[in-house]
Design brief:
Largest sheet of chain A: 7 strands, mixed
Strand content of chain A: 15-25%
Number of strands of chain A: 11
CATH architecture of chain A: 3-Layer(aba) Sandwich
Number of domains of chain A: 1
CATH superfamily of chain A: Class I glutamine amidotransferase (GATase) domain
Structural class of chain A: alpha/beta
Helix content of chain A: 25-40%
Low-confidence stretches of chain A: none
Order of helices and strands of chain A: EHEEEEEHHEHEHEEEHHH
Oligomer: homodimer
Strand order of the largest sheet of chain A: 5-2-1-6-7-11-10
Distance between the termini of chain A: 31 Å
Largest interface: A-B, 66 and 65 residues
Radius of gyration of chain A: 16 Å
Chain lengths: 211, 211
C-alpha cells in the first residue's frame, strides 16, 4: 500500500508528520515523500525533510496526503507541477486527502469542486475560492476525498483512515502505539473554544506568516 | 531562545515534530536540529530529516528536546557521543526535556537519577534502569527536567513548556494556531483505556520494531 506525501517549500511539518506517524504503522505501508525535485525541502520554519523521489518518479498511489503550510499560497495555482501531479494521481488513488491548507492544493487540482471540505480555520475564504463548501469540522469525508482541519487535525484524520483501510482494531492499536491520549493543558484549540482575543492574535500572526 | 533537537538514526519523527511545531511558534525561537554528524538522519520508518549542525557546533541551548524511537536502544549507553553531549548541554540549559524513549538518553546522561519521569508505556523497565522512578502520567516536571510519555505526548508537553516560558496567552494562541482540538475517533490511547487485546498486540509489534 503506497502512501505518498508530496512536499513543497514552506510546508508545515506536523501536517505531514502527524498522518505519517499513524499511516506508516499500517500493515504493508510503503511511505514515500516526494517533491518536484528530489532532495531536501524546507518547512515554513526552516527544517528540511528529504524527498527521496521526484514527483515524476511516482505515477500513482493508494493514499495521497497533501500537507499545508504557508507555501500553499504559491503552489495552489493552476498549472503548478505539483497541482498537475495531484490531478493525475487522484484519478486512480484509493484515498485523496489533505491536512490544513493542503486542501487548497486539492482545490487547485479541481478535486474539491462542489464538495464539502475543511481547512485551517483562518483560511476558509481561500478554500471556498476553489468551489468547495467549508465545513467547520475536524475531518470531512466526501467519497474518497478526506480533508482535515488545521495542522494537528491530520492525526485524527489518519486514525479514521486507518480504520477504513485496515479495521478498527488495527487503528486502535496504532493509537495506543503512539500513545495518542491527548491532554492539552488548555481548551483553546478551535475558534469555537478560544477567546476572541486569542483568535485575533492568531489571525494577525498568521497573516504575517502568510499561512 | 535556542531550542535544540538532537537527532539519531531510527528516531521517531513525531516525537520531535510535535514539540517543534509548538515551540517554533514561541516569540524569538531559534530552532536547531543537530546530530553527531550533520546531514540527513533517518527515522525508524526511513524518512530523513536534515540535521543542519553537528553536535560539536552546538555548545548550549535554552531548551533541549530529545526525541525517542527504536534508535534509543543503541544511543542510550554510557560513552555514546550524543549522551555525552546531552550531559554537557544539560548543565546550563534552562529546560531539559524528552519525548517517549528519549527519556532513556537523558537517563544514560545521568539526568534522571532519583527523579520521577515518564516514557513510552511499553518501555518502563528501560527507563527505571537509569535510576528514574516511572510516573504513569502524560508529562512529568521535576525542576528543569520535563519528560513526556509516548510519541504524541510531546505536543502536550510543549504546550505546557510554552506556558512556562512565554505565558498562558501565548501558549493558547499556539494551540489555536495549530488547531489542537484533538478528536481521536477512539479512546484507545493509553494502557488504562485500551483493551487488553490491543495492549498485547502493540507490545508484540513494538518488541519486533525494538521501539
Amino acid at each position: 500500500m503506497r502512501i505518498v506525501f508530496p512536499l513543497f517549500e514552506r510546508f508545515t511539518a506536523l501536517d505531514a508528520i502527524g498522518p505519517y506517524e499513524v499511516l506508516s504503522r499500517l500493515p504493508g505501508a510503503e511511505i514515500v515523500f516526494a517533491a518536484v525535485m528530489p532532495g531536501p525541502v524546507r518547512t515554513d520554519v526552516g527544517l528540511a525533510l528529504v524527498a527521496d523521489l521526484g514527483l515524476g518518479d511516482v505515477d500513482g498511489c493508494d493514499i495521497l496526503v497533501v500537507p499545508g503550510g504557508p507555501g500553499t499560497e504559491s503552489v495552489a495555482v493552476e498549472g503548478n507541477p505539483l497541482v498537475e501531479w495531484v490531478r493525475s494521481v487522484h484519478e486512480h488513488s484509493t484515498w485523496t486527502t489533505s491536512v490544513c491548507t493542503g486542501s487548497e492544493v486539492l482545490g487547485a487540482a479541481g478535486v474539491l469542486e462542489g464538495l464539502r471540505a475543511t481547512t485551517h480555520w483562518a483560511c476558509v475564504d481561500r478554500l471556498e475560492s476553489f468551489g468547495a463548501s467549508y465545513s467547520a469540522t475536524r475531518v470531512v469525508i466526501e467519497g474518497k476525498v478526506m480533508t482535515a482541519a488545521g495542522v494537528s487535525a491530520g492525526i485524527d484524520m489518519a486514525l479514521l483512515l486507518a480504520k477504513l483501510v485496515a479495521g478498527e482494531e488495527t487503528a486502535k492499536a496504532i493509537q495506543l502505539g503512539i500513545e495518542y491520549d491527548p491532554q492539552p493543558p488548555f481548551d483553546s484549540g478551535s475558534v469555537a473554544k478560544a477567546s476572541s482575543t486569542t483568535v485575533d492574535v492568531v489571525r494577525a500572526v498568521m497573516a504575517a506568516r502568510q499561512v
